[in-house]
Amino acid sequence: MATSESSESKSKTEPKYFKFTQVDAETGHSVISYPSMCPVFPDLPDLKVIWGEGNWYYGTASSKAKENPVNHIYAIKKDEFLDLLSNSLEAYKKDCLSKISQSYKQIKEYIDSQNDVESSTIGAQRYSDAKDFINNSQVSELLTEESQVSGQTMLELSNNIISSYDKYVAKHARLSGLKTLVSDTINSYTISPDNFVDDYYNFYSEREVLGNSIETPNIIAAYSKDPTDIHPEVDNNYTIRKYSSNLHARWELLK
Length: 255
What we know:
Blueprint: H1 2-13, E1 16-20, E2 23-24, E3 39-40, E4 48-53, E5 56-61, E6 73-76, H2 78-114, H3 121-136, H4 141-150, H5 154-187, H6 196-205, E7 207-212, H7 217-223, E8 230-232, E9 237-241, H8 247-254
Helix pairs in contact: 2-5, 3-5, 5-8, 7-8
């Protein structure tokens, strides 16, 4: 008897899952059937909108809430709701990964543009020749001519070339590592069948400290105009969404 009562109690408290459209504020008709100048969400008890796609929205409501198919308000099973939510999340993750790849290419191109010599074929040759001179005392015609024109000794020139090239390569290594880190963080996120609504919210809401307005003002100066992604917290810290595709902001901290 206790088990039966427990199951009944759980049934009463567990929310219902709905797929629905907005409705007109005055008539209550679905905006699909009747375009509205003042659309609102339908009056379902304890309605919590989770996400939307086009004209359709998905959410939970009280177990007392009733569906109204004529008005495009449908009660759906929990498993179906979970599948739809999972598909929505996977589509968003895919879009994030695409944006990360685009940002990676843009930053990579910027690094190359700021290091035009090092990024060129001749830059790699200069580096190889400089290493040969330092390690084996081999003198190339390329560096000999550059040494004469620049007024640097072969040793000075070789050390400068190696230092500049190593810094250039290190930037690309950090950028590649950052792309992998951010991509893997987003790609590996999953939602639990037992806690999928909270997990879904967490993906969009969890934040991490990006920088400090005192210690890293370059980040704040560059991205303070994007409060949806980066905003101030206590102790002068600025945070970013943990699962954000904003590679540029994170790169500002590493470069």
